[in-house]
Amino acid sequence: MNIQHLANQLSQHKETKDVLIQIIEYLKANRKKPRVDEIKFLLKLMRHYISRENKKSEDQKIYLWKEIDITDLKRIKTIQDTLLTQELTGFLYEFLKNRDDEVVRESLMLSLAYLYGGNRAVQEQYYNEIASDDENTLLIFLYDKLVEKHKQFKKKELERVEMLYTQT
Length: 168
Fold this sequence. Notes:
By secondary structure, this protein is mainly α. It has helices at residues 3-12, 16-29, 36-51, 70-85, 88-95, 101-115, 120-132, 137-167. The radius of gyration is 18 Å and the shape is globular.
């Protein structure tokens, strides 16, 4: 089933808020021993659920949005506030340190949707998470990930260039 279609179905459910709360409770309960495929799916579903509110750009990734109606932004803020009351920030912060690249990617993408529009309360909660991390584990983890990805890119690029020179 298409995840966007599923997000649309979720929005039409009479108990949408309760379903979101159950998803978050499931994620909380499984954050120590996550089932990676389920985590990725649920993070993606929540991201699509938020992003579908921008009627002008619902097919685009959030970071590509150029405009949004104020009514769409208010609906997104309502969703963000619901997620905030369920303490999404804390375990989303933990998922950003997951070993699986796709979980990290989906956590970042959901974080973009969750922070979209400058929701001050969400921003403060993220700030508090980062500020309370005395050992900077997230920043060190992300740095290590970036270094690892850069090395992989560099290796692939060297292989590509070498192949180009050997073929001609």
